Amino acid sequence: MSDRLKRILFIAFFIVFSIGIGGAIYMYFFRPVPAPTPVVPPEELGGALPGAGEGAPGIPGEVLPPGALPSAEAVPGAVAPTPVSELQTVILNEGISNNVSLSSDGRSARYYSPEDSKFYKVNADGLITALSDQTFPSVESVSWGHTRDQAILSFPDGSNIYYDFASGKQKTLPQHWNDFDFSPDDKNIVAKSDAVAPESRFLIVADPDGSNPRAIEPLGNNSNKTFPVWTDNKQIIAYATVGEAKGFDRQEIIMIGQNHENFKGLLVEGRGFTPLWSPTGRQIVYSVWNAESGFRPELWTSGGSAENMNQNRIKLGIQTWADKCVWANETTLYCGVPSSLPSGAGLERSLFTNTVDNVMKIDLATGEQIQLGSPGTGLSVTNPVIVDEGRYLMFRDAATGGLYRFRLF
Predict the structure, then answer these.
(1) What is the 3-state secondary structure (H, E, C) of 194-220?
(2) How far is CA 172 from CA 189, 193, 208, 209, 368, in A?
């Protein structure tokens, strides 16, 4: 083979080899990838679209224009109903929610809106409904019934009104009556009758509408030291901080019954006594402050009925006020616990109303204390209630007055 022929063959081979390599590179790196052929599920054959399922019911009587969404209920501060979710904290009402209490149905919370002077209830999903169309401007405090949606409303001028939200029944009560509390069955109320003359001041019991009043105990000059509270076992209807002095850091709390019973007093290690009786009335959790706690409120527990008063009295080592707590059952309660409290906080509570809280679960049967976390940035727990079979804690934020839901489990 001549040298000329060899060169021709070599050139031809090189050209073919280069074209092959170039094609391989193009096919591997630069060739467009065709879109995959769509797979049509059997139920979509024939051009039908999949159904959207059953929709939520519309608003009765409201016809919406194309593309419009139903408006939120005309409730001050109301937010769109929030489905139960895994969010730890959900706001239920952005408006001011005063005098929050557990509804008689046990599944929602009741509150007063000063923005439109109406009463509402809200469930755990954020659905807000009016308890009544009646308006009550400038309500200052509310004493709620337990088994029915009824209440005694007190106003800045001292006037008091009994109102039944189911029937619309309304009755004016004497102006010199104050500090009301309903009996567990709602058949009676306890209150203080503060007449001008000390000798005419009494702790009284009456029907909720003010009828059939009867004097229980004379108050004299100790009215401001007497506090009506009707325990669920019906034994105690009030307590008074007039017991025998036991030193600066100890006092006796006198328990008052309906029939002049000689109940044993509760010995407490401090001042600023704030009680919270259990659902049966057999136990009590309370807060007091003393020098040892740096004058910060601290929780204690004790027997709270006539049979076991002062038994199993234990300091829980948690610094908060008892009215920031709520019982889930006879042995378990949840509390809003300030993330920090300076020394002397118990001496002037009003300065620390807006302290940022964590939520704590306390099991008195086992002694276990579990911090569940903060309900949210800057939130301070007041008026706590438990709804939805113990799943949620509802509370009013002390700083804004908004109503929140905190998931417990």
Answers:
(1) CCCCHHHCEEEEECCCCCCCEEEEECH
(2) 14, 15, 11, 8, 47
- Judge if 175 and 251 occupy the same domain: no
- As for how many domains the chain has, the answer is 2
Positive or negative, the Cα torsion across 63, 69, 74, 78?
positive
Give the pLDDT confidence of 152-207 residue by residue, as tens digits: 999 999 999 999 999 999 999 999 999 999 999 999 999 999 999 999 999 999 99
- Backbone dihedral region for residue 274 (phi beyond 0: left; psi -120 to 50: alpha; all else: beta): beta
What confidence tier does 310 reach under pLDDT thresholds 50, 70, 90?
Answer: very high
The total number of residues shown for the chain amounts to 409
Side chain identity, residue 28: Y
pLDDT at residue 354 is higher than 70: yes
Q: How far apart are CA 123 and CA 107, in angstroms?
A: 6
Is this structure's pTM higher than 0.85?
A: no
87: CB partners within 8 A, 6+ apart: 407
Looking at beta carbons, which pairs linking 172-176 to residues 24 or more positions away fall under 8 Å? 172/210, 173/209, 173/210, 174/210
| Amino acid at position 56, single letter | A
Residue 286: is its pLDDT beyond 70?
A: yes
Out of 228, 257, 274, pick the residue that ends a domain.
228
User: CA 315 to CA 288: how far, in whole Å?
Assistant: 10
Show the domain range for 371.
235-384+403-409
